[in-house]
C-alpha cells in the first residue's frame, strides 16, 4: 500500500475496544463457556502439558481447531486458575485476534478493490458488531473467523504474486486452521477443485498462474486435516463414548426436525426457548424411539441414526427441500434468544416493542449486506478470482442447509461476505460519497503525494 494506515489502525483498535466494553454490558451474551466442551478440553490439555493431570483426561470429542487456539492461552494462566479466570484470558485473546482479523479484512479489500472499500468492509462490522458478541464466549466462531481472514489474505498475496511462497503458505495454514475449527467447511476444498477444473477448460490464463498451486494447496490441506482428525480420534476413542462422527449424526438428526412442520418458528433449538414446539417435541420422541432400537437390536448409535436420516430425506422430499431453503435464510437472520421480549431492556429499546424494533434494525443491516453482495456478484465479470469469497459462503450454506443451521455457523463467512458487500455497496453514489469523506480523515494525503 502506498498510504499510511497508522491512523486507521489506531481507530480500529480503539473502536473495537469500546464496542467490546459495550457488548460486555448487554443483557444478553453468548454462552460464556459455549457448550463447555472446548473450554474443558483445552483446560485439560493445558494441565496435561503442565504435568498436572494424566493423559487419560485429554479428550478431543469435537472439532480440534479451538484447542489449538485456547490451549496456548490457558498455558499462560496459573495452574490453579478458576474457570472465570480462564475465561478472562480467553476473552482477551479472542478480542486480539478478532481485531487483527479486521485489520486483515481491510488489507484484503484494499488489495482487491481500494482503501475505501476496505474502510467500508470494517465499518459494516462496527455497525453490527456481531464479532464482539462471539468474542465473549469460548467458542469456535472467533478462531474460525480469524483463520478464514488469514486464508483469504494468503489468497490475496498469492493472486497478486503467484510465485511468492508466503501467500500460498498463508493460504494453506489459514484453510487448515479454518476447517479444523469448522470441519463443516470441508466442502470448500471440493469447490476449489471445481474452480481449478473450470479454469482448465475455460480460463487457461488463470489455470496457468494458479491452477497447479491451488491443487497442491488443497491436497496438502486435505491430508493434514485427515491426519489431525485421525489423531483426535485415536486420542479420544478409548476414553469417551462420544466422537466427531456421532456428534455429526446427533446434529444431523436435529436438522431433520428443524423447520419441519413449523417453517416459521425461528426460535433457538433449546428446551428453554421452545418447550411448546411441535418440531422440538417430535425430535425428542424420535430420539427416544431410535435409542430403543439401539438397545433392542444392539446396533451402533451411528448406524441407527444414519439409517433414519437417509430414509427420512428420501421419504419426505418436500419437507427436505423446504427445510433446506428456510435454513439458508435462517443462517442470515439474527434472533435474540437469551431474553424474553417483555423483559427486554437495552438503552432506548425496552419491552416487546423495543425488542422487535432492535431485531428489525439488526436484520435490516443483514439485508443491506446481502444487497451489497448481490450487487457485487451481478456486476463483477471475473468471479473466478474471488472463488474463496463466494466459495466459503456456498460451502457453509449447502452443508448446514442439508443438516442443521444456526446463524453462528455462517458467522465466519462474514469475512468474505462483508468484503463482497462493501465492494457492491460502494457502487451506490451516496454511500461512495460518505465513505470518501471518511477516508480523507483516516488516510490523509502526504505533502509528497500532492
Furnish the topology, listing elements before pairings:
Elements: H1 6-24, H2 37-49, H3 65-75, H4 83-112, H5 115-127, H6 130-135, H7 141-160, H8 165-181, H9 187-202, H10 204-236, H11 244-255, H12 278-297, H13 301-315, H14 317-330, E1 345-346, E2 349-350, H15 351-379, H16 387-402, H17 407-410, H18 414-425, H19 429-442
Antiparallel strand pairs: 1-2
Helix pairs in contact: 1-4, 2-3, 4-5, 4-7, 4-18, 5-18, 5-19, 7-8, 8-10, 9-10, 9-16, 11-13, 12-13, 14-16, 15-18, 16-18
Structural Rg = 23 Å
Strand-residue proportion:
under 5%
Q: Would you list the SSEs in sequence order as H and E?
A: HHHHHHHHHHHHHHEEHHHHH
Number of helices: 19
Measured distance between first and last alpha carbons? 17 Å
State the major sheet: 2 strands, antiparallel
**Widest beta sheet: strand line-up:** 1-2
Instruction: List low-pLDDT spans.
Output: 446-450
Helix fraction bin: 55-70%
Overall structural class, as computed from helix and strand content, comes to mainly alpha
Shape: globular
Mean pLDDT figure: 90
Task: Kindly summarize this structure in a few lines.
The chain has 450 residues and is an all-alpha fold. It is built from 19 helices and two strands.
Question: What does this protein look like?
Answer:
- The protein is mostly helical.
- Helices cover 70% and strands 1% of the residues.
- It contains 19 helices and 2 strands.
- Strands 1-2 form a two-stranded antiparallel ribbon.
- Strand 1 and strand 2 (349-350) form a beta hairpin.
- Helix 7 runs antiparallel to helix 8 and helix 16 packs across helix 18 (414-425).
- Mean pLDDT is 90; it is low at 446-450.
Amino acid at each position: 500500500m502506498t498510504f499510511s494506515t497508522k491512523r486507521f489502525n489506531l481507530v480500529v483498535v480503539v473502536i473495537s475496544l469500546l464496542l467490546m466494553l459495550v457488548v460486555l454490558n448487554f443483557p444478553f451474551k453468548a454462552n460464556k463457556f459455549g457448550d463447555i466442551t472446548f473450554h474443558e478440553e483445552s483446560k485439560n490439555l493445558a494441565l496435561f502439558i503442565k504435568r498436572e493431570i494424566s493423559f487419560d483426561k485429554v479428550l478431543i470429542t469435537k472439532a480440534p481447531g479451538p484447542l489449538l487456539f485456547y490451549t496456548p492461552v490457558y498455558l499462560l494462566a496459573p495452574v490453579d486458575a478458576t474457570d472465570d479466570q480462564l475465561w478472562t484470558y480467553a476473552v482477551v485473546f479472542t478480542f486480539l485476534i478478532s481485531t487483527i482479523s479486521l485489520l486483515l479484512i481491510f488489507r484484503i479489500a484494499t488489495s482487491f478493490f481500494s482503501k475505501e472499500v476496505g474502510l467500508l468492509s470494517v465499518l459494516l462490522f462496527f455497525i453490527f458488531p456481531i464479532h464482539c458478541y462471539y468474542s465473549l464466549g469460548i467458542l469456535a466462531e472467533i478462531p474460525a473467523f480469524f483463520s478464514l481472514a488469514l486464508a483469504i489474505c494468503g489468497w490475496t498475496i498469492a493472486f497478486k504474486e503467484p510465485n511468492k511462497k508466503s501467500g500460498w503458505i498463508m493460504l494453506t495454514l489459514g484453510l487448515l486452521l479454518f476447517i479444523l475449527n469448522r470441519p463443516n467447511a470441508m466442502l470448500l476444498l471440493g469447490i476449489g477443485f471445481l474452480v481449478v477444473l473450470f479454469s482448465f477448460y475455460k480460463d487457461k490464463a488463470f489455470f496457468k498462474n494458479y491452477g497447479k498451486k491451488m491443487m497442491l494447496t488443497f491436497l496438502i490441506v486435505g491430508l493434514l486435516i485427515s491426519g489431525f482428525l485421525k489423531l483426535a480420534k485415536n486420542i479420544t476413542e478409548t476414553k469417551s463414548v462420544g466422537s466427531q462422527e456421532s456428534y455429526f449424526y446427533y446434529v444431523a438428526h436435529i436438522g431433520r426436525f428443524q423447520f419441519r412442520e413449523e417453517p416459521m418458528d425461528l426460535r433457538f433449538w433449546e428446551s428453554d426457548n421452545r418447550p411448546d414446539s411441535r418440531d422440538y417435541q417430535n425430535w425428542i420422541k424420535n430420539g427416544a424411539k431410535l435409542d430403543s432400537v439401539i438397545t433392542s437390536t444392539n446396533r451402533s448409535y451411528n448406524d441407527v441414526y444414519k439409517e433414519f436420516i437417509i430414509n427420512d430425506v428420501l421419504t419426505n422430499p418436500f419437507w427436505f427441500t423446504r427445510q433446506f431453503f428456510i435454513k439458508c435464510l435462517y443462517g442470515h437472520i439474527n434472533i435474540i434468544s437469551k431474553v424474553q421480549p417483555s423483559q427486554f431492556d437495552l438503552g432506548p429499546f425496552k419491552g416487546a416493542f423495543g425488542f422487535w424494533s432492535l431485531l428489525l434494525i439488526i436484520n435490516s443491516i443483514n439485508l443491506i449486506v446481502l444487497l451489497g453482495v448481490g450487487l457485487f456478484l451481478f456486476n463483477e465479470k471475473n468471479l473466478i478470482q474471488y472463488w474463496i469469497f463466494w466459495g466459503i459462503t456456498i460451502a457453509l450454506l449447502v452443508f448446514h442447509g442439508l443438516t442443521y443451521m444456526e446463524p453462528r455457523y455462517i458467522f465466519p463467512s462474514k469475512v468474505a461476505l462483508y468484503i463482497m458487500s462493501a465492494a457492491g455497496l460502494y457502487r451506490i453514489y451516496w454511500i461512495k460519497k460518505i465513505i470518501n469523506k471518511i477516508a480523507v480523515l483516516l488516510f490523509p494525503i502526504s505533502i509528497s503525494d500532492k
